[in-house]
Amino acid sequence: MLQVSPKMLPRLKETDKDLILRRKRAEERQWLGDIEGIDLTLLFIRTKQADAARPTRRTPVALGTPTVPSPNR
Fold first, then answer.
1. Which of 1, 24, 26, 40 could be 31's S-S partner, Cβ–Cβ 3.0 to 4.6 Å?
2. DSSP character for 8?
3. 28 in a structural domain
4. Mind listing the pLDDT tens digit for each residue in 41-53?
């Protein structure tokens, strides 16, 4: 999955705003196929914005210390 850098959030916001204007124009002209495509793109952009805004630090998982089996005598 494509990771979005938090530095790109302003660009995503600008793209989101532009797509909203394009959608409004497509509605006025009744371009149903364009509206569907724009809606899908807006969904992807907003998902990426939410993903990028989430903190990337995750809590470590304790895996334990491996043990070496003792030889049978």
1. 26
2. G
3. yes
4. 999 999 888 887 7
Task: Tell me if 19 sits within 8 A of 42, measured CB to CB.
Answer: yes
Average pLDDT, the chain: 86
Residue-range definition of the domain harbouring residue 28: 7-53
Cα atoms found within 13 Å of the Cα of residue 49, Cβ hemisphere only: 15
How far separated are the first and last CA of the chain, in Å rounded?
A: 52
Residue 27 lies in a domain: yes
Within a domain: 62: no
What are all long-range contacts of 10-14, with beta carbons under 8 Å and residues at least 24 apart? 12/45, 12/48, 12/49, 12/52, 13/49
Residue at 64 is within a domain: no
Q: Please, which pLDDT band fits residue 56 given cuts at 50, 70 and 90?
A: low
Looking at the chain, the whole-number percentage of residues with pLDDT higher than 70 is: 90
